[in-house]
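fyi for ur records
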Amino acid sequence: MIEAPLAIQDQNLTIPQNHLDACAAQNIPVKGNAAGNTVDLFDLTGETLPPVPLPAGFTARGSNGCRYGTGEIKAQKETKTA
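which gave:
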């Protein structure tokens, strides 16, 4: 949250061009609200949403297994075939 947006606007700050280029490369809007809407700032249709949470019941061990387990499983398969 920005406490004093008008004070920030008075500073005439500019966004570095490489930041704008990074957004353009990823098709991220740099104007408007979170959805890039410049006409109706309350319309968030199309905004980027965070990933959905893991299903209930997932433990830290299961969650880490989903994220990092592929390399470990591959190593286990290679060990068994050797």
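Residues 17 and 23 are 10 Å apart (CA to CA). thats all i got for now
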